Every structure is written in structure tokens, then in C-alpha cells.
Fold 3-dehydroquinate synthase.
Amino acid sequence: MQKLQINATTHIYPIYIQAGIRHSLSDYIAKDYDKILVITDENVATLYLADIRCSLHHEQVYTITLPPGEHVKQLQTFYDIHTKALQFGLTRQSLIIALGGGVIGDLAGFVAATYMRGIDYIQMPTTILAHDSSVGGKVAINHEYGKNLIGQFYSPQAVIYDMETLQTLPLKEVRSGYAELLKEALIAEPTLYNSILSIKINNIVVEQLKMHVRNGIMIKANLVEKDEKEANERKYLNFGHTLGHALETTLGYGTLAHGEAVAIGILFAMFVSEKKLSAQLPTKDMYRWLLDNDYPIHLQELSSTSLVKQMKLDKKVVSNHVQMVLLQAIGEPILQKMDEAELEGLLEQFFKKINNV
Ligand SMILES: O=C(O)C(=O)C[C@@H](O)[C@H](O)[C@H](O)COP(=O)(O)O
């Protein structure tokens, strides 16, 4: 068992990481709750919901099972969950458990943050990607204008991560999760970056996967502790997301998995870092690795003007300027305000380049 602790400014909470921990859940829930609501999706429910219900050892466990996919992270579902929670009779002494990937974690966390002005919740990530989204208290739903535009910072009581659940993931999910790991590696840890680039996604050794995820969590935890509300260095965790989120919204949620969009965003941020900062980066190796691992990086023609318009709804925008996270070197991120026309030009060059290589 590995136990980490997040010392965030607003709340200190544990992260338990252990294969099979789902079978002894009640040992890790620190308080008595009158009711427990587990929010999950259909894929995860089929595999793990029975185990969870059984190991909670609680008489009043309710469940809400949603269809899988980013499209549920929206206002109507959020409202419907509130309605069900009221019908189940959840009170301020109740607990919500977010059992699933990033979509479930963000949505269930935001319900917890707002139900009766906020009740306790626990993040139980079941994907690689959610090693990132379950830590740090960012909870949100999407608006049709963009990703995560309605949300809050609201820390969980605990993160309980059963690494066994990572072994049932489809390859698309593994790819998606590894993009967030690459992000953490590139902003903070060259050795993690080299280790990731040495693997093949369809042939990962479990111990290696666990090591990558643990490293990713530690990098994330460190930045969250320094800057919980994202005033400064937490923004580095948004590396690759400026274009990534714009692509997800422009192409329609679910066309690309979140991490697949972030992977393209990372490549773009590296391309811009080379152009603007003359940074010496292994962008070609990264591009090769993404291709070798079947990341969908060749996109249909997209209008740079509309992508930049979309990027202007990014939360890092200052004084109407898109602010990108760039790299001076691996492990040395900086924030860079971008001129709109220059950004459009760079996007055009970037898409030409990746589509012609
Ligand atoms: O925790 C953070 O900070 C991040 O930026 C992590 C991102 O990987 C994550 O996808 C996050 O939800 C995106 O944040 P947003 O603030 O740009 O919506």
C-alpha cells in the first residue's frame, strides 16, 4: 500500500494507491455517513460496482450509472443527479463516491461541491487519465462554448486508487491516460519522459505502468500543494490543454478522447516552443512515438481562426490574450502570452507539418 498526502491550502487529504483496495473500502473511509451515493458509468459498473457496494459495508448505498463518454459532463446530467440525490434523501451527512474516469470524477465532484452547498466526496479513479483529474480538486462540467467552463476547486476527502482497475482498460483509454503522463513528464521530469518514450502502449509491463502513474501523481501533487487555485505554477499542468480543449470542443466531445486531444496539444506546444523560444526539444521523437502508438494525430483540415477563437475561452487567457504553457527545455515550463495573428500562423504551419510528414 502506498499512501501519499496532499497538503492543499484548503484541505489535507490522503491518496491511497493499492491493487485490490476496492475490496476493503470501508477501512479507508474516515467518517460515518448516513447515506452513500456512488456515481459511475456503465462500463465501470459492469466490472466493479458489485465489489464496491459489498466492501462499503453500509446499509444505505445508492447508485447512479451513466452512459460512458464526455457528453454526460453537462448541465442536464448535473441537474438530474441533483434530483436523484434529493429523491434518495442525501443530506449534508452523506457521501458521494466518484467511481470512474475523468468525466465521472469531474461531474460527481461538481455535484458534491454544490449539493446543499457542498458535501463530502471521494475520488475512486479507474483509468490512467484519472490519476491526474482525481487529484487537485478541479471539478467541472462543460458548456457548449468550451470544456470545464462551469466548475469549482473542491477537494475530495480522499483519493482511493485501485491499480487493478487499470488492467481492464481498452487501448484508446491507455493512450489517453499516457498523454497526461507525458504532460507531467515534460513539465517536470526528464527521466519519466525517457521512460515513457521507451515503452509500447500495447505492451506495457504492469510494474512500469504503476511506476509511471505514481510518478505522475507525485508531480501533480507537488504543483497542487504549491498553488491549489492555479494562480501561478499549477498552470503548467495545463500544458497541451490550450489546443487540446479547443480541439475537443471544435470536433465535438468524444470525437477524440481527452488525452488524444491533449497529445496533439502537447505536440503543438513543443512546436511553438521551438519557434518562439528556440528551445531544443525532442519534438520529432515525440511525434514518432505518438505515431508508433497509434495516436490519431492527423486531423481533417481545421480552421485556425476558429481554433484561436475557441482557445480564447481557455481559463489561462489574460487581457484577451491566449496564454500557452511552453517549454524552454524538458522540465522547464514557462507561460507565454500569444499574439492572435501569430498563433493562427503557427497553427497553420503546425497542421501542414504534421499532415505532411
Ligand atoms: O489540475 C490541473 O490544474 C490541470 O490543468 C489538469 C488537466 O489535465 C485537467 O484536464 C484539467 O481538468 C483541465 O483543467 P482546466 O482548468 O483547463 O479545465
